[in-house]
Amino acid sequence: MRVLYILLLSFLIQNLVAQSGLQASYSFDACDLSDQSGLSPDAISAEALDCQCGVVGSGIQLGNGLDSIIFDQSLIPLFSEDFTLSFYIKLINPLDRVDIFSIMSDECMVDSSLVIRYNNISNQFSVEIGERLENVIELYAERDPDVCWHHIVFSKSEETYFLYYNEVLAEERAAVKSFLMDPMHNMMISNSGCLGIIDNPLTGVIDEFKVYNRFLTSLELQALNEYPDLILNQDTTIFLGDALQIVSGESCSASPSWTPVDGVDNPSVLDPILMPTETTTYTLNLPGSTCSTQDMINVNVIDLDELDCTDLLLPNAFTPNGDNLNDVFGISNEFIIDELERFDIYDRWGEKVFSTVNKNVKWDATFKGKEVNPAMFLYVIGYTCKDEDYVKSGNISVLR
């Protein structure tokens, strides 16, 4: 279900976002620097650039010390209003401080500038934006050393700037006022012409470079996630004899492998079918010439003959406070249920506040659109398991 949800959500949001503010899109899939949105001029390169495997399709590799991608100045005014900048980057043997992206003048003045770097010493991505030395803000994101692709999103809403790293908000900072970018500056990837003593041109691959003329919400940012090198299935439970079709994101690895190989129909492909005979944690290994990574999935195997139909698992309390931890109440091992006949919850006066016949639906501690007060509630669950009827009842405490 998670895979279908992710794919459907991504499709719907991508269509929404594509129609709502996308001003420039450089996918590099055709191994060129053309804008896919049709709204901005194509970029140009200072040197002939190499086309390599990207996070999706192809990406552009920079690395001979002179490489750079230069964007048209018509994009620069977008960064004076609300905006969202999104791109993927794969670093290759970074040294000291790496120049990734910049909007700066030929004279390297800080009257207005935007610079995105990676510092190999501190293991951080950084964004510096400002006007004049006394009005500059910096945002930082820790690099995950266990992944090959790094998704950087920098955005602005009113006077607040946001830095996201791999879909997680790393830092937000409020400025005294919005920064105005000089439209006569240079906007480019790598080799800004203003490198310091410890700065180095980018050695790595850039892909899926996009600019929007508005701030994208966290939900909209999910559509920009390409899930590279990741298993999209979540940890799951299957019955003995059943199979699980794996769905993975794209990978540049030429030789993926799964361990252990027991129960794997083809351990050398990204999307095999898993059919373990016992509970197993599988690892997807993705070796590469410049970067290697891995992902894991746990498949819990239940023998139907040994299934205890009376062992329906439910917590005795939950805390619906919006922290995404124990926020809902429901059946944990719903796989033992063949058919859910009723799942009802009552308050202390006997009023039904929740009801469902879908074993995957959980209660969020609301009734008629309003949050219920902290209290004890009664639940009654009727279900069939192995063609027999069962009823389970008990109490659940709502804590806030």
Describe the protein:
There is one protein chain. The protein has three domains: 2-222, Jelly Rolls, CATH 2.60.120; 236-305, Immunoglobulin-like (Sandwich); 308-398, Immunoglobulin-like, CATH 2.60.40. 6% of the residues lie in helices and 41% in strands. The chain has helices spanning 2-18, 218-222, and strands at 22-26, 44-45, 50-53, 58-62, 69-71, 83-91, 97-104, 113-119, 124-130, 136-142, 150-157, 160-165, 168-174, 186-189, 199-201, 204-212, 236-239, 244-245, 257-259, 273-274, 280-286, 293-302, 317-318, 339-346, 352-356, 366-367, 370-371, 375-385, 388-398. The chain starts with a helix and ends with a strand. The model is unreliable at 4-14 (pLDDT under 50).
